Structures are given as structure tokens and as C-alpha cells.
């Protein structure tokens, strides 16, 4: 670890040619005194807003003459003069920054990009909503970008949108707006866009945003190794408190220190970055860590992060502090960046191998799990197959039994049909024989006896003896069935009337009994006496007379006629031929046919 005196000697040995006498070289421990205490504590614990700080355009005549000489030779030779590096490290005058930045970036040859910018701003971008949200948070402390919809925010929106269309691979990432705003403070939109493109492509800033921020991880690894080399005590302190470089340096690298620090310090960093390139990121980061090492060693995890967010930017407010920091940064050697990059790539390859091995192991485990699942599934399917085979076997046996039973029944039915056919044939033969015998017998009787002959002729004329006509038989059956239905209907009606009369009789008996209960005693005795006398008298027999014939008593006859009138229907319809045709079809059953045959 370098002591304060050694750092002082290194600062004095800076290769600044004739410009080393322009700025004194205080020690690192005295830099903290360059920022006044009252200015440091003026904002309390609130972070410093981006865009804070006023940059004066005043410059001494000696510096302007030096720059005029360098710029003249630069324009004539088209090459960077040797004195340019020393002047840039001391800080480019604010009035010349726009021109110097464009020359350092090589924009004087970017006429084609400027023309393309005018086309890009007319195209639509998928990042427009994100850009609109970010520009309101970019340099809110600067008057040029403070007003919503003002010239500054509109210019910043167009430049950011144009780059998102120009670089479709990166598009727009948070942090680009701070860099674009820094450029817009020194040059028009077209030139600012051209310098932004140069910074992203030629200075490889876009690599920080690509491939999942792989290049950013590389830069953070390099910074970590540089801390271990130059600031081992602070590095160990960070390790003990689990503070990692990405927690504070990611924003530094992605925004080129433009998001947190005062403008004078930001402009001076971009001066040197355009001169030297990516190495400036590490030099400035190490200079800041060296400057605040004493404070950081006294803080814990939360305190360290708060210091980077709040305290450190406030300590860079004064121009003198910014100049001393840049001078310190330029003195730091970062020659081992290539070695650290190689180490990182080796580690990355190792991580990839480990990742591949892990993926292979995981793949094997997944395959083993899938195989086990397949085995379980196969076993289940095998059990189901066995169950289905058993069911199929049972169904086959059942089907065989059913087929055998059907064959047996078919054979039995065939045998029965054959037997019936034989019986019918035998009966037909017997019937023919009997008819023939009857005809012979009838013929003999007719010849031998005249009376018998006449009787037989009459018997042949009897319609009942003649063969029945099937059509007339069907009609007769329908007539009989219709009469049967009418008779049943009349019977139902009679039963209904009988039931009504029964109800009326019961009601009358109940009423009579109720009336009897309400009679006076003398009336009951009188009626009882009359009833006894009446029972002793002889009444005529209404059932049968002495001769055994039906009784001809007038009272009996009147009762019988009354019953007949009530039981018979009021009017009986006569069945005609037309009515027979219109009658509903009658179900022909074997019982009706049998009864008809029996009748005949």
C-alpha cells in the first residue's frame, strides 16, 4: 500500500510536460479540505441531484493560447499533437469542449451519420415510453432539462429515440440519457448524436449493455482485482462486510459517472475518457476509492452504500477537488487489465464448464427420474393389460357358452318344428280320411233312406253347417266385442248410481238417528208401539206364490219394473251396417275366437 508521501511523489512525477506547474499537487489526505464543510452538509442526507453544479466558461489567456496553438496544428495535420494529452488531462476549457469532444471522437468525418439522424428521428421506436419516463429524471437540477416539454427534454428525447432505432441490438438502456444530456449541453442534436454513436461503438460502451451485461461483469472483475492490488486494506474491508463492486461501480461504468457527480467533475471525466478510452473508468474509480478510503474503513455495509450514494458525490462539488481527483486518476497505472481480462475469461470458461457439468448432471437426474416414471407407468399399464386379458378370457368363455346354448336351442327348435310338421301332416291325412269316410257314409245313407236324405239336405242348408265366411266372422266378432264394451259401460254406470244411493241412504240413516235422539220420550214410546203392532200383521209374500210361479202382487211388480228402469240404459243404439264400419278396430284375441267357435 502506497503511503501519502509516495503518492505525493507520484503526483509530482506526472508526465505533463510544460503544464505540470499550472496545478499544485496536494496530498490525498488534504483533498478532503477542498470542499467546504458548510457546502458539504447543506443538503443533509439527500442525494445530490444529477446535473448539479455550474461550470464557468472563464479561462486564463495562457490556457487559451496553448489550446489555440494545439487546435491549429491539429486542424492542419489531422493528427493529435503531442501537447494535447497534457492539456486534456488538465481539463478542456468549457467554451472549447464542444469542438474538442467532436475532434477527439472523430465526428468531423461523420457527415453521413448526421444525415441519417434526420431520418431516424422520424421513425417509431419500441422504447419511446421508457425514454419519456427517463428524460424527466435526467439532470433535473439543470435549467436546460428542468422544464417538461422544453427544448432540453425534447432534444434529449429525439437523440435517445434516434439511437434506439439506430442500434437495434442494444436499443435503449437506462443510463444512456445521462450521457446524451451531457453531450447536448455542449453541441447541437446532430453532433451530439454522432458523438454518442462514437462513444458507444468506437469506445465500446455498448458492449457493457450487450449479452446480458457480460462485458460489465468483466469490467467489475477487473476493478475488483485492481482494488486488491492498489487498495488491499479497503478490499479486505469490503470482503468482510460483503460489499461487492457491482453495488457501487455498475452505475459509474454504465453512465460514465454522469448520473451522480457534479457537472464539472463529469465534464472533466469525459475529457479524459475521449482521450484515453476505457482505462479512464478504472482510473477514476480507483482515485475515488483512494480519496475516500479513510472514511470507508470506518463504515459498515449500510454506511458504505450510503456514502457512495450521498456523501461521495458531494465531496466533488468544487472545481479544485475535481481537478485533484482527475490528476490522481491519471497517475494510476492499470497495465494489468489484459491479464485480469484473461483470468476472467478463464474463470468464465470454468463457470461454463461447471454450468455444463451441472446441466449434464441435472439432465441425467431428469432422465433417471423420467425413466423411473416410465417404469412405474409401464408397470401400471402391464397390470391393466393383464386385467384386460383376464376380462377378455372371461368374455370369450361366456360367449362360447352363449353360442353353445344358442346352438342347442336352435337344434331343439328345429326338432320341434319338424315334429310339428309331421304331426300336421298326420292330422291332415286323418282329416282327409275322415272326410272321405263321411262323404261315403253320407252317400250310402242318402241312397238307403229317403228321410235321412231330406234331413241331410236341410242340414246342408243350415248356415251354421256351412263353412264360415272369414270376413263375416270378423264382422260378427267386432259386433260382439262392441256389445260387450257397451254392457261393461252400463255396468259401471249402474255401480256408480248404486254407490250414490248407498251414500244417500247412509246420510238419511244418520239424519234419522239424529232426529230420533232429539224426539221427546212420549213420541218415542208411541212410535215403538206402532212398530210392534205393525210387525204382528201378515204381509203378502213378494217372492214366490203358492203355485211356485212368480208372484203377481201389484206392489211386487211395481218394484221390479222400477228396478229394471233404473238398471237399463235410457236408449239403446241399434247397431247398423254403417256403424259397424265406423266402429274402432277390435283387438282380436284367442279367447274371443274360441268363445265364438264354442257358440257356433
TrEMBL record:
Gene3D superfamilies: putative rabgap domain of human tbc1 domain family member 14 like domains (1.10.8.270), Ypt/Rab-GAP domain of gyp1p, domain 1 (1.10.10.750), Ypt/Rab-GAP domain of gyp1p, domain 3 (1.10.472.80). One of its GO terms (molecular function) is GTPase activator activity. Residues 364-444, 477-518 form a coiled coil. Residues 574-600 are annotated as: Disordered. Pfam families: RabGAP-TBC. Keywords: Coiled coil, GTPase activation. It comes from the Eukaryota. Residues 91-277 form the Rab-GAP TBC domain. This is Rab-GAP TBC domain-containing protein. The lineage of its organism: Eukaryota, Metazoa, Ecdysozoa, Arthropoda, Hexapoda.
Amino acid at each position: 500500500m502506497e503511503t501519502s508521501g509516495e503518492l505525493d511523489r507520484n503526483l509530482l512525477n506526472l508526465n505533463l510536460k510544460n503544464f505540470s506547474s499550472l496545478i499544485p499537487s496536494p496530498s490525498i489526505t488534504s483533498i478532503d479540505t477542498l470542499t467546504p464543510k458548510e457546502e458539504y452538509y447543506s443538503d443533509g442526507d439527500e442525494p445530490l441531484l444529477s446535473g448539479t453544479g455550474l461550470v464557468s466558461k472563464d479561462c486564463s489567456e495562457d490556457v487559451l493560447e496553448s489550446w489555440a496553438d494545439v487546435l491549429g496544428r491539429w486542424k492542419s495535420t489531422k493528427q493529435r499533437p503531442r501537447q494535447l494529452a497534457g492539456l486534456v488531462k488538465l481539463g478542456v476549457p468549457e467554451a472549447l469542449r464542444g469542438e474538442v469532444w467532436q475532434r477527439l471522437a472523430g465526428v468531423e468525418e461523420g457527415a453521413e451519420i448526421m444525415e441519417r439522424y434526420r431520418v431516424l428521428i422520424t421513425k417509431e421506436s419500441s422504447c419511446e415510453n421508457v425514454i419519456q419516463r427517463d428524460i424527466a429524471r435526467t439532470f433535473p437540477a439543470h435549467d436546460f432539462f428542468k422544464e417538461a416539454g422544453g427544448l432540453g427534454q425534447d432534444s434529449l428525447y429525439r437523440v435517445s429515440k434516434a439511437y434506439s432505432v439506430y442500434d437495434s441490438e442494444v436499443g435503449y438502456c437506462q443510463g444512456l440519457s445521462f450521457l446524451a444530456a451531457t453531450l447536448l449541453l455542449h453541441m447541437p442534436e446532430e453532433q451530439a448524436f454522432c458523438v454518442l454513436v462514437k462513444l458507444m461503438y468506437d469506445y465500446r460502451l455498448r458492449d457493457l449493455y450487450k449479452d446480458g451485461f457480460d462485458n460489465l461483469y468483466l469490467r467489475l472483475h477487473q476493478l475488483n482485482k485492481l482494488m486488491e492490488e492498489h487498495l488491499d486494506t479497503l478490499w479486505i474491508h469490503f470482503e468482510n462486510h460483503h460489499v461487492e463492486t457491482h453495488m457501487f461501480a455498475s452505475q459509474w461504468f454504465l453512465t460514465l459517472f454522469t448520473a451522480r457527480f457534479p457537472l464539472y467533475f463529469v465534464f472533466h471525466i469525459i475529457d479524459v475518457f475521449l482521450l484515453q478510452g476505457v482505462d479512464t473508468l478504472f482510473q477514476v474509480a480507483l482515485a475515488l476509492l483512494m480519496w475516500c478510503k479513510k472514511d470507508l474503513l470506518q463504515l459498515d455495509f449500510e454506511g458504505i452504500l450510503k456514502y457512495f450514494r450521498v456523501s461521495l458525490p458531494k465531496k466533488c462539488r468544487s472545481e479544485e477537488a475535481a481537478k485533484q481527483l482527475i490528476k490522481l486518476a491519471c497517475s494510476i497505472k492499470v497495465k494489468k487489465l489484459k491479464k485480469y481480462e484473461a483470468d476472467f475469461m478463464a474463470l468464465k470458461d470454468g463457470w461454463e464448464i461447471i454450468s455444463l457439468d451441472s446441466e449434464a448432471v441435472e439432465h441425467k437426474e431428469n432422465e433417471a427420474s423420467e425413466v423411473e416414471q416410465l417404469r412405474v407407468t409401464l408397470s401400471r399399464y402391464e397390470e391393466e393389460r393383464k386385467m384386460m386379458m383376464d376380462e377378455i378370457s372371461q368374455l370369450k368363455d361366456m360367449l362360447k357358452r352363449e353360442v353353445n346354448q344358442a346352438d342347442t336351442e336352435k337344434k331343439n327348435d328345429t326338432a320341434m318344428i319338424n315334429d310339428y310338421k309331421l304331426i300336421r301332416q298326420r292330422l291332415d291325412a286323418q282329416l282327409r280320411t275322415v272326410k272321405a269316410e263321411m262323404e261315403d257314409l253320407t252317400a250310402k245313407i242318402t241312397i238307403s233312406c229317403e228321410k235321412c236324405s231330406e234331413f241331410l239336405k236341410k242340414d246342408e242348408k243350415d248356415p251354421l253347417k256351412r263353412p264360415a265366411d272369414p270376413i263375416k266372422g270378423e264382422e260378427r266378432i267386432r259386433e260382439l266385442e262392441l256389445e260387450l264394451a257397451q254392457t261393461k259401460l252400463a255396468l259401471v254406470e249402474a255401480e256408480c248410481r248404486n254407490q250414490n244411493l248407498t251414500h244417500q241412504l247412509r246420510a238419511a240413516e244418520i239424519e234419522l238417528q239424529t232426529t230420533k235422539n232429539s224426539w221427546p220420550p212420549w213420541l218415542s214410546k208411541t212410535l215403538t208401539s206402532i212398530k210392534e203392532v205393525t210387525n204382528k200383521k201378515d204381509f203378502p209374500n213378494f217372492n214366490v206364490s203358492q203355485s211356485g210361479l212368480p208372484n203377481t202382487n201389484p206392489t211386487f211388480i211395481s218394484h221390479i219394473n222400477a228396478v229394471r228402469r233404473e238398471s237399463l240404459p235410457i236408449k239403446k243404439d241399434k247397431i247398423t251396417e254403417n256403424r259397424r264400419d265406423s266402429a274402432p278396430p277390435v283387438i282380436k284375441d284367442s279367447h274371443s275366437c274360441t268363445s265364438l267357435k264354442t257358440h257356433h
